[in-house]
Structures are given as C-alpha cells and as structure tokens.
Amino acid sequence: MAKDFARMEDSNPSGNPTIHDVSDPQRRVFVRGGLAAAVAGLFGPLAGCASTGSGSSNSAVSGLGRAIGFKSVPMTAVDQVVVPEGYRTQVIYRWGDPTGIAGRMPAFKTDASDSADDQALQAGMHHDGMAFFPLDGSNRGLLVLNHEYVDDGLLHTDGMKTWSAAKVRKSMHAHGVSVIELRRDGAAWQQVLPSRFARRITALTPMTLTGPAAGHPMLRTAGDPSGTQVLGTFNNCANGQTPWGTYLTCEENFADYFEGTATPDAHQKRWGLKKGNGAKYRWHEHEERFDVAKHPNESNRYGWVVEIDPQDPSSTPRKRTALGRAAHEGAAVALTDDGRAVVYMGEDSRFDYIYKFVSCDKVRPGGAAANRDLLDHGTLYVGRFDVDGTGEWLPLVQGKGGLVADKGFATQGDVLIKSRQASDILGATKMDRPEWTTVDPLTKEVYCTLTNNSNRGAPGQPFMDAANPRSNNTMGQIIRWKESGDLDATKFAWNHLVLAGDPKQTRYEAQGNVKGDAFGSPDGLMVDARGVLWIQTDVSTSTLGKGEYTNLPNNQMLACDPTKGEIRRFLLGPAGCEITGLTATPDLRTLFINIQHPGEPANERSDPERPLAVSKWPDGAGRPRSATVVITKIDGGVIGT
Length: 641
Known about the structure:
Layout: H1 24-31, H2 35-42, E1 87-94, H3 116-119, E2 127-136, E3 140-147, H4 152-155, H5 165-173, E4 176-185, E5 188-191, E6 199-201, E7 206-210, E8 229-231, E9 236-241, E10 247-251, H6 266-270, E11 305-308, E12 318-320, E13 332-335, E14 340-346, E15 350-352, E16 354-362, H7 367-370, E17 378-385, E18 390-395, H8 412-417, H9 419-426, E19 431-432, E20 434-439, E21 446-450, E22 477-483, E23 491-499, H10 508-511, E24 515-516, E25 522-527, E26 533-537, E27 556-561, E28 566-572, E29 578-584, E30 591-596, E31 627-633
Pfam family, one: PhoX
Protein name: Secreted PhoX family phosphatase
Region (Disordered): 1-24, 599-620
C-alpha cells in the first residue's frame, strides 16, 4: 500500500535496545558515516551462503539456474506497463470485473454507479498479494488475490461529498479477497465465467477466530459475546500459500478504520488507535462497531492472519490467533525437514518487528481438510538481530522472558493479542517497516524487505543499528538470514542482500549499494523455483519523482540473482501505481503481478470530477482501475531467462 511517509504509524514507545546500544564503538561507526565498512564486516557470517548448495525444489525448472537473461528496462515516467523485449502483457481481472459467480455477474459501470450489492460480486479495489493454485498443472488454476483498501474518490460517483450507509457497504465490499478461475488458451489467459470456485470475501463475510486467543475476554463484543465470530477482513496486504493448498491473507493497517478516543489507553496507543483515524474511511459513521468508544474490543479482532480454502467456496475463513496479532504484511510458509510448517511474517510499522511461527504438528496428506487445525498449535517467535551478524528467535510464550501476569500476560491469549507489547518486553529489534518475506526453495535462506523509515535517527527516535543502519532511511533495504540448522532453529546468521538507493543522490545514506539498477522502497518479494529473487517497489505517490526519488518517477519490479547480487529492472508500472502481488505458474512460463492504485494522487484520494487526472490505465477512459497483469515470453519460455 502506498503511504505518505509522514502518516506512517509509529506507536512503539518501548525503550528496548536497538541492536542494542551495547556496543558504543559500533554505534559510532554508523554515526560518523562509515556505513560501507561497517556493513561489509557483517557479511562474514553468511559468506557464500547464497550458493545453490544441496537444497532442492519440487519444480523441474529449478535446474535452469538463477541466471537473469533479459535486457534491463530503462527508468522513465510512463503511464503503461513496460516489460523487456521479447515479453508481452495481458490485463485481466480489473476492479469491477465480474468474479464469476453463476447468475450474478454485473458488469462494471465506468461512472462508478455500481451498487454495494454489485460490488460484492465484482473484483475489489487495490489488488495486492496473490497466489496461483494449480488445477491442471500450469494451464488452469485458481488465482486468489487481496483487495487492500479503497480510493473513495473513484469508488463513488461523487466521492465523499455525500456520505451514506450504502457507500460504507460498497466500500466494505470493495475490500477483502477474490477467488477466480483462470485457464490458458493458447498464448493468452482467460477468466473462467462462471466458475464453481468463484468467490468474494469482504469486510462483511463471517469468519471464525481459532487458536489460543479465541474466546479471550479482549475479543468479546456485544455482537459476539463468545469472542469467536467476526465479521470480515480488510486492509489485506500481502499473503502466504500453504503446502496443503490454502491461502493466507494478512490484515495490515486495521487501525485506520477505527475511530479512536481522545484519551486512548496504553493498549490502544500501542496499536495506533486514536481520535481522527476513522475520518479516512468513515465506516464508524454508519457501522457502530468501528467506534472504539462504543466498542473497545472490536479492533482486537483484526490484525490477524486469515486462512482461506480456495477450493471450497462454502468454507468459513479462519483467523489464526496462534500466529499473533500485528499489522501483518505477509506470511511466507516453508517446511522443516520433518514436515512442520514455519511461517515468516513482517509487520509494516516503523520500529516494529519480524516474527516466525513453528507448528507443533507435521503437515498431513489430505489437503486443507487434513490440516484444518495445523496453524492453531505451535510457537510464535520474534526476531532479535545482533550487531555481530547473528540473531535469535525469542519465544512469545506466556511465563517466559518476563511475559507474566503482573505485566499483563496472564494467558497465552494475552501474549498473542498484545504481541507488540510482549515483543517490547523481550527486547526484539525495532525494524524499518518489515514487509514481505520469502524463503529460497533451494537454500532455505529467508529474505525480508525493510521498506523505509524516515524517522530512523531523528531526535527522540531510535538510533541506527546494524540491521537498520541509515538515518532518515528513505530508501529501505533487504535483509536476509540463514537459520542455524533447520527452519525451526532459534538462532540464525544474517546480513543485508542490498541497501536500496540511487548512487546519483548527494546524501550518502540515500545512495545505497545496489549492484545494478537503482530502486528504493522495496516491498513485494518472491524467490521463484529456480532461485531468482523478484523485488517490487512501493514508493509513496507523494514521493515518486521528487527529492531523493527524482530519478525514480515510477514504481518498478526487478530481478536479482542473489548468488551474484546483480539486480536488473524487469518492469515499470503506470503513473501513480504501486507494483505488488506476485505469483507464477509451476512451469514459470506465466508470471502474475498486480498494479495497485494506478492514478493515485499525492494525497492518496482521487478527485471524482477528474478521475483520469494522473493515469488512464488500463482502459484509456472511464477510471483508472487496479488490475492483474499476466506476463509471458513471446517464445513461450521461462520468465526471466
């Protein structure tokens, strides 16, 4: 989600150290600008670890190697999707397109006069994370994708000039998740209409809370005294895909939807709930549960990872509380050698944390039904990244590390609902907005984007540290680590894959050390089956082409060979958009990406009287529309070769 840096949440007042003020000489290295030397010294623990090694992938394409074989796309201001020579793109499933529910497929109206009921059956706004689930190898499958947030200036004919319960319902239906069916027809892809799998999940879809926090007093409301039944999911950012065939969608900036009080309590402050939040979407004006003063527990029911079975449109989505509550960005899933699930998660807030969950049980044959409760039992950890290039996973377990009753943690449910406060107590490392995570299938190396943090090192704010080594960090970095043993290990070694930046900038901290094409604000990440790391950027629309982003007017997607560190630009997006959502067919001959909020102005809300002021993508008329883009090679080959 593109965000004005100045409005980013920063609700971590804890005094826990930041790598961790234990080494004054090291701190002085960063202060005096010896960044390159200091960071180079930290690469030792992982030297050579990015080689292919003995890891293996289930995909036959892994044997093709990591080499990047396309000509870099030059950076320029455009209002279209640009890919390298030899590639083609196809737009599919735009905001407002029918999802494919039989007998209920209203067409999109370009003046935004679609009703709330129409929107419940159409593609939502602002496509984000997604995953492809094969039904017939690489030729047919289900595409499941998030709809993160809305631009009310485009969603309604007159924007927010008038406001009503119907507009709130339409906004709520434009959030959530889509399940659509696609098939390959020759060189192109088509949406299957209708499809028995087609489904829209919205901010009004009934869901179940499961795991250790289910039924906790902090999750009980007047509408749900049991604390187990929730209406809807929203601000769904990145995602995960499980080996047993389910989709994980992550609830990120939920605080933006709740109107807080003028005097929030300590818990509400730590989660960014304050007076004025509700003005962004105005749901609380017609949906009382979004008024914190009237319903103080409702917000605790959001910020979870939600598991969805895409092959059963009648199934109830489940909010998995064992994975902890956070402004969840993504949930990358991998398996230990003995078959237990490990989930790596970032939290997109300034100075918040990176988490890992390890299941108690092994994945069983039989798909979603056989693993129905797998993510309800396990251990949640939070990461500490130490100055010597090692780190430790700290267990978020009641009774350990000071997580005891007299500090507000009488039960494991307390720990999970208040995971930020628990992580504060454990001394986890305050990171620069950890977003997407991904696991290399060949090496089990883990990557996480730290998008940016302009508050780092500012007066009264946390100082620079080894993992977050730049003050006024406008460019961001990608951190990586290797577990000390299997993925369930509690210790790891880490370094930076890259410090993003533009070498043409005068400020040293903005130059970065990119070996290849310049970029900033890394966000989406995926290591594909042959080991290529794909990087997507999310530069705020208030920042694109300005200041230290003068030479970067558009968001982009890049490919990286992590064994060499080479980074090459593969794609440019249209004006005002973010590049996000990233998945591929098993044969890697089709890549799916999402264009989110094309045409978004600097203030992040469009003028309904001038909807095409910034972008005309993808239709050239009507309204700019978030959409999924299909990318293939003209010769039918593997993407990136």
